Batch of 4 targets.
Target 1
Amino acid sequence: MGVTDPAGPVMDRDEVDRALARLGAEHEAIETSLLALQDHAGRRLLEGAELTGTTRERWTTAEASISLLWAYFDAYSDALRGAREIRARRRWSSREDLVELTELLRGESVTVAGSATATANAPTLLSAAGRLSERFSLAALVDRMNELYAASLDMVVTADAVWSALPARIDLLAAELQRTRKLAHSVGVRPGEHPAGDDLERITRILTRLREDVVSDPLNFWVPAQGSSAPGGGRPDTTVYDREARALEDVRREIDAVLTVRQDAEARLIKLRDVLSRADRTLAEARTARGEVLAKIAATEVPVVSGPPTALQEQLATAAEYRRQAQWHRLSPLLESLEQKADDELLRARESLTAVTAPLAVRAELRGRLDAYKAKVARHGLAEDPFLIERYDAARRMLWSAPCDLRVAEQAVLRYQRAAAEALGAPRVPQQGGPEDRRGEQV
């Protein structure tokens, strides 16, 4: 919409003609804008909707503003038509005509009948509420129409933007929600029985309420653009929609996990049985080894080996029952827990076997060290040395007797090492660690 020039002295004929041309162009632009607003899809939706909240309040104001716009436009049209008639009286307007035209075109020559109801609902006209009529210059009238038009158009465009964006997206998400509910039901994910089922119910309630609120109060879901004065500047507020869309995606992933369980449950159960069986065999081996250690090794603390946990076997039996009954939503978390516990149990069994057989490993290391030095002595032609033979036999009797005192046996092996080192002319064997030959090589 345009803006007319401010008032001035008496206009000449050229100024009048230019003003009439400008006013005619403004009249055409204003009429085009008003007709576009009248035909706007958002306005028609607002007229037929059951509105609430902020939208209802603003639409009441906008309706009054639109009614006033047409009243102002009619008054503007009448004033323009009157000015054209005066100008058309004579080809060369008289002084009296020019004075009259100047007053009409620049003065407060337009009278608009007031409407108490309309002006009370239009915020820009509160000061005029209750008046029987108002007087305007054409320029002031255009300014007033521009103001009312901008406010009305902003309200209509904003509501239409929200209605164009959110309900359709909510409907698509609701359709996806229904598909997810059917899939969840097929694998036993139901409200009250699985958290994902409860989440689906909650999302359904929120989406239903959200759609109702968006349809009845679209302006409550609009975020204005900062610093923008253009009608409809901003974007729809999708915070609630986005949050529920993410929640539905989480539920879909949970159901996908349950579907995966349905597909590979048997293989996972077989693997679980195998892991627990290996853990049981390892524990049995550890118990057997503990008996051997107690019989063959003296003065050694041997840890007690616990039996297999019956709780895991009971949970494994429960998991198998869930599979037979197709209770996939219950089987899924149980399998994940059992797999972790089974791996932990196998690791515990292996650690127990390692701890129990540690004394046997020490004895084997001492036996290997003793035989290694005997071989080294033989390579240097000292195999028949009586002193070395005596030390070797003493250490061997201790290591190959049962029960074996590892501390005493280790001292015997160290004595043989030192004797062999002295016989070979090597540096003295230290109290701890293996022997070294003259080249510093570890045996």
Note: The first strand starts at residue 110 and ends at 113.
Target 2
Amino acid sequence: MKKHLIILIVLACASGVGALLLSFRAPAPLVARQHCPAPVPQPVPGCVFKTVYEGEGLDSSFVLRTPDAVLLAEQKALRWLVGAQAGNGGYGAGSHARQEVRDPHAVPADPATTAMVAMALMRMGSTLDGGTYAQQLGLATEYLLGQVEAAPKGAVNITDLTGTQIQTKLGANIDVALTAQYLSNLLARLPEQHPKRLRAMRALNTCVDMIQRAQNSDGSVKGDGWAGVLQSSFAANALEAAKAQGALVDSTALDLARNYQKANFNVNSGSVATERAAGITLYAVSGSTRSSAVEAREVNERVAKAKKEGRVAKDAPVSVQALEDAGYTRSEAEKLNTAYEVYNAAKVQAQDQRVISGFGNNGGEEFLSFLQTGESLIIGKDNTWKTWYEQTTGRLVGIQNNDGSWNGHHCITSPVFCTATSLLILSVNNDIEHLLAQGAVKYR
């Protein structure tokens, strides 16, 4: 009897334990979060777009699905690009004097080209801590940080290399501007406690100091190349991006840099100053568009807010008076109205087919100008970016080399530099959140 009782008790305990174990069994596997190569028009399960600014989420109507042909072109370009990395982690474009040398391993690494490649790897989904090409990105980052840290005190550039393709065509100090741009992008993706964060911020502040030290009284940057307006434009972009990340940017220097770019475009006559743009309208108007994008967006959003509050008539056009009614002082209103007018006029010219032809064929300067225009439209929260994207990516896919690279046909011919820039254009819709946040208005 006791034996039977013991058996029943054991069986009951076993059943209870089994039920308890079942109640704590591992849940059904979660669907892996999709890697989103680009934002898509409708939400995709597992693909999360975080808040971008002022409590507003990413508007699905603002994004585009990446076409299959573009995705294929991106992957071919990535494979080619990672194979071009030098042993020291950098990437090189080669010298202006030896443009016929197209082998990426036969030229020294330079910071400007390395920064462009690093930005492309990041935009394609790699970070220092993850992604297919995290190792390559980490090596490129170490190369750039090392260049900044080794620069002499009081210098205005971070390399002792001279005569590179990029320096000759854009400007002698382009390396520091593009490196600063990369470091800002990097910091935007690094958690506060990341072991590289403090070092990257120190390097960014060093670059900012160099850019400001090299600034001329008119807001341009010393050391003009063939198309020096592009060096000055990227320096302005770098200061703007650095400020967004909390770097020590002098507001006067940033205003000067923006004003120099805006002054290249005359709203009343539609004329463009191309003396420092190699006589090419495209180079100048892409810079004007980019340097006025943040302020133009502020105007749109502030006026729309004032209309909702009844301080500005619903059918009132943007004007100095409307901006004053929205809460700006007279001087602020005049400055912002000018930026608004420059942006809206310059962006049209920057996308005009006659202007897009640039020098007549594509060099690295054309690719850079296309990139500036596209980023301007996104930063400005301008829906016309989608038309620009479809047209520009279609053109780039059509001229990609069979090995996955691109090269210029004049001036900046380097396949490494041109491939990195083209990849940044193709994948710009991967970066919509970051670009929108950079142009976000912080209302007083």
Note: Residues 180 and 204 are 6 Å apart (CA to CA).
Target 3
Amino acid sequence: MTTETFQKGRTSVLVWSTLGFTLMFAVWLMFGVLGIPIRKEFGLSDVQLAWITAVAVLNGAIWRLPAGIAADRFGGKRVFVSMLALTAIPAYLVSQVTSYTALLVCAFLVGFAGNSFSVGIAWVSAWWPQNRQGMALGVFGAGNVGASLTKFIGPALIVAVPATGYLGGFVPGGWRFIPFLYMVLLILMAVAAWLFTPHREIKPSSGRSLASMLHPLKTVRVWRFSLYYVVVFGAYVALAAWLPKYYVDVYGLELTQAALLTALFIFPASLLRPFGGMASDRFGARKVMYVTFITMLIASGILMMPYGHIVLTRSDGTASAIMPWTVSVTMFTVLVFIMGCAMGVGKAAVFKHIPEYFPNDVGAVGGLVGSLGALGGFFLPPLFAYTSGWSGMPQATFFVVFLVTLIAALWMHWTVVSMLHMASPELSDKFEHDHHSAVADEAPFIDKHDLTTTGVHT
């Protein structure tokens, strides 16, 4: 394969993997919008509705590690196209359910679409050089914008397609038309991805034992990256599914309005991912993560404040003024938008680390990080529901986000500070990866390869 042909090949891999991932992401998170008419049809409680979204997210998380390993071992194209075709089956089944139990089972099965992320990451990174992987993986990760696809087309199609459907009911109507449409699009995308990408497979882990492929997962650094990804991706997935309901229940908006306002969160959280990748290439992923965590803490800290009155008192303890505190729909949307921007940039920064530290194990490491991050999207919606129900305040949703972000930020900062104390003072401003590194002594919770004589890694 000539250099020119290889460059065209890697471009086609990036284009079609991104388009396929966008569609798969839309399928994975379609219950964020469909949940509203589903709740009405089946008479569900908020907790029951939360579990529909949660089980879909769960199945989109638990297979990411084996899927990533399979992509490294057998080739990203083969695995990615197979996933597109297989996901079409449960998408069709969702359109045919008649009970809550059947819906839970089918929602779980269609959630398999979420595992396409680790496969696509492995496929793209195998074709792109290290100095451009931040950008390439950021572009691929922008496929997260698929979460807004249902937000845009869902409400309009639910109203436009008659409840009786078409062709004597073969094409279902109402909300059921959406999963049926996705079934058709998944099949078409599988065919296109097979035809228009290089048939050559790059297999970084071909011939290696499973034990050697899993060995990097023993390092603490991988698990730390996973917690970061819970914050920037797990919380993103959870909020993308939860926000339409929040807008409807708290602000009394129509589903169409709620879906559009949720898209204002989803778009920056997806489309800024390439920018996050380029910023990480240029300034270093850790600096980008600091900005991400600080921004999220400020935004979620404001959003979690309970509504009521702020009482100002004099020095003698008597009240001098009482001011009401509420977050209007405009202020809420702006703060959620800011948080989405931070998440979009942070998602790319997390995955910038992986091919840099683990160039031959992107599938395995990326699969674990992606899996644990997505599991955050599984646990958080029920936590939102239970915490809001227990406290009686819907703002408790953002207390959960704030707390998880704070834990991740403190761990990252503690790691950096600990390594700086172990090293010499002249390393205080050296945060990024240095390829000319040596190994120092191992500290608790710090990978021994993190501390070097020329720079500090986390």
Note: The beta strands are 308-313, 319-325.
Target 4
Amino acid sequence: MTTFTRPGKIALLGYSIETMEAAQALGYDFVVVVPPGFEEGLQKEGINAISWEFDKLSQDSTHLREQLQALGCRLAVPLYEECVEWAGALNAVFLDEPRLFNRTLLLRDKGMMKRKAQLSGIRVGVFEEVDAPADLLRFFRRVNEAQSRIEGDELDLVHVKPLRAAGSVGHRVIRTEEDVAEIPVDAFPLLAETHLGGQEFSCEAFIHGGKIQFMNVNEYVHLGYSQVTPATPDLEAQRPKIRKAVEQLVKAFDIRYGVIHPEFFLDAEGELAFGEVANRVPGGHIFELIQRAYGFDTYQALLLSADPLTPQAELDAFFPDEVSGRQGYAGNCLVFPKPGVVTGLNVPDELTLHPCFEKHSLFEPMAHKVIKRTGFGNHYGTLFFFGEDPQEVRDAVAHFEDVEFFQRAAQLT
């Protein structure tokens, strides 16, 4: 691949070995901004690194911009959720676009995000920011009153999420009024929203100059557990409609550069509803799946898309065709042990001999008690699959969700 001269330095916000390797491969001069404690090891490896507490706001926050400007940085690239508004604030100065910081906040605050989408004519569920349990209870009751629910009817679900957390962190489902009482008061404020039915999926769109350069459709087999990239044929057939929805989202949020990770719902009537959107590397190892399915380095794609100085000719040469460029279907399954005492790892032949199985990152745990998770919690490794038959890959990841990979104390007696 032909590379072009990269003027100045860029700042990578967050610790990501893959992104550092991508920057080196593309010829970028870069500075890594990492949480305190990580910079010393990087500096010993000859990498220009400084530390910053991304979760702390103070009057000294301008010091980060001053440090990076002194180092000659012209662009900040966010890698994780907590870094997004920092990149927005920095790039508002680096790129001389004062409104950029405000636009970045839309991608961090879930309530503001939903409101902006709604004002832009994008279909969303009914939502409300709730500051206390009483507000959530009132919202839950109003939703079900509007549906004319009476005693004995199954109630409509309500979802609650922290306003600024990444992905599924802190996600709870409210099925009854009693569920409201189980939420700690210090968890508020929250975003409450009605349940959106249908098939949930995500897109990973690389944007440059306000235009989609490449768009993946990632099918959730079971949200938070398993997925296939690109989508299997039924969902893939909706690609033109999905692309229009993503283009509408890009225009509504005035997204110019970088990668976005929106989530949508497709109902039985073929209507799309917007869930939420992130402006950073997606979770769930989705970048790895895209790379396996299409054969290009997704971290290099992130940097090329985020950089306003990337020539269009380089982007055209870098990205494959979204349909004909597919090399197969990649899937994964995140492994979550069931609650109880875990004592060891058990990888069955059923997995290793499966024709679509490629690798896993399961690890031998120290004996400890697995507690009930809030949201999806931390997984104990990932299973990766690849094949030419999308249904075979989908069936594999769905099946291995239910396989127990960890020994229990009771099993040893």
Note: The mean pLDDT is 91.
